[in-house]
Alpha-ketoglutarate-dependent dioxygenase AlkB
Amino acid sequence: MTETGHDLAPGLRYFPDYFDRPAQEALVAAIRQVVADAPLYVPRMPKTGKAMSVRMTNCGALGWVTDKDNGYRYQSTHPETGRPWPAIPETLLALWDAVSGFAKPPEACLVNFYDPEAKMGLHQDRDETDFAAPVVSVSLGDQCLFRIGGTSRSDPTRSFRLSSGDVFAFGGESRLIFHGVDRIYPGTSTLLRNPGRINLTLRRVNP
DNA sequence: CAGTGCCT
DNA sequence: ACGA
């Protein structure tokens, strides 16, 4: 495992190619099982009801969801099936143990599927009740242009071209940084059957 | 403002 | 930069 910490803000950690190809394939198989149980759906913005460009699902005790009427929140059931979210795959729990430095396990794993046109605007992950634990993020499939700023929206930003198997963690002073995905580079990975990218985000929600 | 749509 |  390699960690590139240099030139990154305190609390930000980047592990390029954390997962090798066989591990990525195993992770994709596990995520396919999650999606078979908890289908991808289109999340909607609070108040406007505007569709986001990514499709989402979750695994874990809690999942991050958003809709027009109730906005951003965590809940224990899939918004369309009403069923509890499936368990977080073991590989991801092991990743959390290796990288988070946090004793308690993650409660939520948000699964975001980006097709080639999908984007995610700059935002903070701030719907958790406790920010002591880091957010741990895994990239699978096509490369993307990932942008990170600071804790204020107006802070300057830097961009990274993330590849399949890369892991990013934001903790400490960087737990609440703004971050987003500006573009997907279709055809840059053979991991998935279809062009696009999967992002997995592990979070601790409650203290 | 987890958005869009300009602009350079 | 916007207007929700």
Chain A has a mean pLDDT of 95.
